[in-house]
Amino acid sequence: MRAVLRDAYGGPEVLRVGEVATPRPGPGEVLVRVRASSLNTADLDQLRGLPRIARVEGVRRPRSPHMGLDVAGEVEEVGSGVRDLERGDRVWADLFSHGHAALADYVRVPADASSRIPDGVSFVDAATVPHSGLLALQGLRAAAPFRAGTRVLINGAGGCVGPFAIQLAVSRGAHVTGVDSADKADLMRAAGAHEVIDYVTEDVTRSGKRYDVVLDIADTRGILAMRRCLKRGGRYSLIARRLGSFARYVLAGPLVGRLTGTRMGTILWKPNRRAYLDEFVALLAAGEVRPLIDSTWALDDAVTAFEHLASGRARGKVVVVP
Ligand SMILES: NC(=O)c1ccc[n+]([C@@H]2O[C@H](COP(=O)([O-])OP(=O)(O)OC[C@H]3O[C@@H](n4cnc5c(N)ncnc54)[C@H](OP(=O)(O)O)[C@@H]3O)[C@@H](O)[C@H]2O)c1
Q: 259-291: per-residue pLDDT in tens?
């Protein structure tokens, strides 16, 4: 079968599409025939081995040559012990903690990390959701509760995770402001943002505006600066890009929160489990979450797809179809 492969950390130039043996499912796994995959910033982190935390699976060189987090496809073969999935089932999964080998014709997936794609949702649309959608869900959950009219600021709202976070917050009745560069304003508005701020021309931490909830995906500012965006009683949730900021929020977040009457924390990534993705089923069916796609590429052109994402020109998800 074909697979996107690499032997070293680096830019898209270290990638190639090559031939490898088709895997067989182990106990508790299914073999999925990949119909679509999508790229995430976390794929770029794993490709580059940066930040250093992305080298958990190989400090000097990647232990696995494979790439790819998001998978949508059909079950081709069922491993021993799997009772609830069968050949032909349409499934999706985030393989961030499960071998990240989705950019291929076939991939082995733990059965308990995969769930059924909702009826009427295409493989291409489904493939955009798992990794970035689950990050958005986990980030917003950490800042709960939401009520109609809750004022939410999403910092870094125009990347892979942001449009899902905007849609999830809007679906809960929030009034959402997205912060990103001006050329991502249309994408943020398409996701449902009520207001957008250009981080290049406006420092939101100095604007004097206060929010009930801040979801920080950009991870570009310090804890005291971000605290200025919160009302008293407000909640801040960080999806940390760097280990340093994760540690800072774990250590200093509770203290800053207590002193300022806010809640300031960071999410601890939870490996994908079936129940998380199932939360998207009703949202997709109701049209409350709508995948926003930048472009679709053939598997043979996956290296160019990575170059496109790495260039910063993507506006929405970049999809790869075997
Ligand atoms: N903590 C965890 O457990 C965990 C787990 C998995 C992944 N992650 C990380 O979580 C992040 C997921 O986000 P993503 O995929 O949506 O990233 P992304 O696609 O890079 O989006 C981040 C956005 O923030 C914008 N931005 C840059 N500087 C900004 C600033 N000063 N103010 C506001 N916005 C700014 C970027 O715009 P420009 O294009 O202009 O730079 C970009 O559009 C990734 O970094 C990933 O590595 C964390």
A: 999 999 999 877 777 778 888 888 898 889 999
Nearest residue to 284 via CA among 115, 67, 64: 115
Mutate to test the pocket of ligand 1, among 70, 161, 187, 246 (most ligand atoms within 8 A of CB): 161
Single pTM value for the model: 0.96
Cα–Cα distances in Å, from 157 out to 30, 41, 167, 192? 34, 13, 11, 11
42 lines ligand 1 (CB under 6 A): yes
pLDDT digits (tens, 9 = 90+) for 45-101: 999 998 888 888 899 999 999 999 999 999 999 999 999 999 999 999 999 989 999
Indicate whether residue 156 lines ligand 1 (CB < 6 A): yes
The highest-level CATH class for domain 2-130+272-321 is alpha beta
Please name the fold of domain 143-266.
Rossmann fold (3.40.50)
Which value, in Å, is the radius of gyration of the alpha carbons in the chain? 19
Is the CB of residue 297 below 6 angstroms from any atom belonging to ligand 1?
A: no
155 lines ligand 1 (CB under 6 A): yes
